[in-house]
Amino acid sequence: MTRAGLFPLVAVVIVVVVVVVVVVVVVVVVVVVVVVVVVVVVVVVEVEVVVVVEVVVVVVVVVVVVVVVVVVVVVVGVVEVVVVVVRLSGRNLSDKQSVSYIWA
């Protein structure tokens, strides 16, 4: 494979790494914020711990769902880009399965 043929794949890998890092940072920030809010609410406001735990569970579930959706969208997008790159380069993915065969 030439350097020109390799560049799109390198670009895709860089995009995937950046997206994964951003998702991890967002998850860590959300978890830290949730923990701080829970501590403040329990200590300062003296709300029952059960109510706070219910809210935290809802927030965590929403964050997990959003992260999963983002990861799935990114993976699908990357697969589409790779397929287009392979198709434009005119190369087969393997001897028996070319891009035209897979998407036929």
Features:
104 residues; mainly alpha; 3 helices
Structure description:
The chain is elongated and about 65 Å long. The mean pLDDT is 72. With 104 residues, it is mainly alpha-helical. The protein has one domain. 0% of the residues are buried. The protein has helices spanning 3-45, 49-89, 99-102. The chain crosses the membrane at residues 12-45, 57-86. Keywords: Membrane, Transmembrane, Transmembrane helix.
Give the helix level as a range of percent.
over 70%
Indicate the structural class.
Answer: mainly alpha
* Strand portion: under 5%
Specify the biggest β-sheet. Answer: none
The end-to-end span amounts to 25 Å
pLDDT averaged residue by residue: 72
Low-confidence stretches: none
Number of domains: 1
User: What is the N-to-C succession of helices and strands?
Assistant: HHH
The global form is elongated
Q: How large is the count of helical segments?
A: 3
How many strand elements?
0
Work out the radius of gyration: 22 Å
Keywords: Membrane, Transmembrane, Transmembrane helix
Transmembrane segments: 12-45, 57-86
Give a quick summary of the entry.
Helices cover 85% and strands 0% of the residues.
Topology:
Blueprint: H1 3-45, H2 49-89, H3 99-102
Helix pairs in contact: 1-2
Transmembrane segments: 12-45, 57-86
Keywords: Membrane, Transmembrane, Transmembrane helix
